[in-house]
Target: Methyltransferase type 11
Amino acid sequence: MSVREEFDAWAAEGRDRGMEERHWHTAKHVLARMPVEAGDRVLDLGCGSGYAGRALRETADVRSYGLDGAPEMVRNAASYTDDPVVGFLVGDFEHLPFADDSLDHAVTMEAFYYANDPRAALDELRRVLRPGGTFYCAVNYFEESVHTADWEENVGVAMTRWGMAEYRDVFREAGFHVASQDTIPDREIEIPPDEEFPTDGFDTRTAMVERYRTHGTLLTVGVVP
Ligand SMILES: C[S@@+](CC[C@H](N)C(=O)[O-])C[C@H]1O[C@@H](n2cnc3c(N)ncnc32)[C@H](O)[C@@H]1O
Model:
């Protein structure tokens, strides 16, 4: 199945909102770290329900663009706001419809590893971000997060599984400085007591604690020199 087919189906079933709820545990910390200022233009890559653009508008006078490859996702996202400066568009990560140096910041939450060619996507981000612009890249699917290793098989679409060092290397190869890299734990997801395991997702409580609290979400921040 293609990424578009997969996420169009999710959107049609209303699963974009469930994703938003789960990802918000972490995304709110990512967005709070971004150095956005009034007047900035911010891209959300793989926007899903579009919550990042809506949230950024609550704290700063920015213009946001949510880009997603699944038209149904974009349709849903657009229907959740009537704010004229929170825009949404269908597109793919490797061909960003923006001029060189035209954006101030970009963010992506739980989407980057779906890129058909993540190196080409980074080249595109490097092209469209202005000098001093930042790219906040948050992923749960990364090599050190051992309990996510079977996702590609389960979701049924191709994914790129880099480790922390590889993210840093590839950012640098694309021309970014790596400003920071760390993992953000999800402290809000409810972890049941021992006796309730195994669950649908985890054999043991220890595994679920490792997945969410220990490994959490990898955030790599690139800055355009
Ligand atoms: C797991 S969802 C995450 C959505 C949202 N960022 C969130 O945190 O809930 C990944 C999204 O990225 C989009 N996506 C994945 N690969 C893409 C690509 N190569 N080009 C454009 N969109 C893509 C999918 O359509 C999907 O809506």
Remarks:
- DSSP finds eight helices and seven strands in the chain.
- Helices lie at 3-12, 15-33, 51-59, 71-79, 118-128, 151-155, 164-173, 205-215.
- Residues 3, 7, 19-20, 23, 27, 46-48, 68-70, 73, 92-93, 109-111, 114-116 surround S-adenosylmethionine (CB under 6 Å).
